[in-house]
Design brief:
single chain, 201 residues, alpha/beta, Rossmann fold, seven-stranded mixed sheet, two-stranded parallel sheet, 4 helices, 9 strands, 32% helix
Length: 201
């Protein structure tokens, strides 16, 4: 078999795989300005709030902290890797209470807190679980929030949804992104949106 034939077969196989895959659709909403001034300040990242298994939670948290550190460098701390004298990590969630932010203001040097909530409202299919001729849907959502510690105000809110569906007429579709994979992609999209809209160091 010649190199040209191998290349053609490889391209045909790739095209067939693409045709058999359902493409995710993404939507994005802002309830704040599209970006922030990330050029200064001391930032605290809270582990991602999610009902997904612990391994997924840890992977999403690494993605969140790693992305913020790539934008802000050493001025970003991850809750759990630093000790807070007056606050337990268990008190933190995606939505931060005013009294918690007030305690942070009085007892730490943090200027901003970054939180995220990731959910998978529906997951009918695994990666290889699409059943041709049957309507199915996978859906995930990521909400990225930033709080200003000095004012106690939420200064950033972005929501990204990721959806992949297979209709009854899609008889050739066999593959689809799982709900867990969509969750990671949704958070990654949200972080990309923050980077693009913000002032970086």
């Amino acid at each position: 078999m010649t190199t040209r034939t191998k290349t053609l077969l490889l391209l045909c196989g790739f095209a067939l795989c693409l045709a058999a895959c359902a493409a995710p659709r993404y939507s994005r909403w802002y309830e704040s300005p599209r970006g922030l001034d990330l050029s200064g300040g001391h930032w605290l990242v809270v582990p991602v709030e999610t009902a997904l298994p612990l391994a997924d939670k840890e992977a999403l948290t690494r993605l969140l902290a790693g992305s913020l550190r790539s934008m802000r460098g050493d001025s970003v701390d991850l809750l759990g890797e630093v000790a807070l004298k007056y606050l337990s990590p268990a008190k933190f969630a995606a939505e931060l209470r005013p009294e918690l932010l007030e305690t942070l203001r009085k007892t730490t040097t943090y200027d901003y807190v970054v939180t995220a909530r990731v959910t998978v409202p529906r997951s009918d299919m695994g990666t290889l679980g699409a059943i041709p001729g049957v309507w199915q849907k996978n859906e995930a959502e990521a909400i990225l929030l930033v709080y200003d510690v000095s004012s106690g105000a939420r200064v950033y809110c972005q929501r990204v949804t990721a959806v992949v569906s297979v209709d009854e007429g899609d008889g050739d579709v066999w593959f689809a992104a799982s709900g867990r994979k969509l969750a990671r992609k949704a958070l990654k999209k949200a972080l990309g949106g923050l980077r693009r809209g913000s002032i970086l160091p």
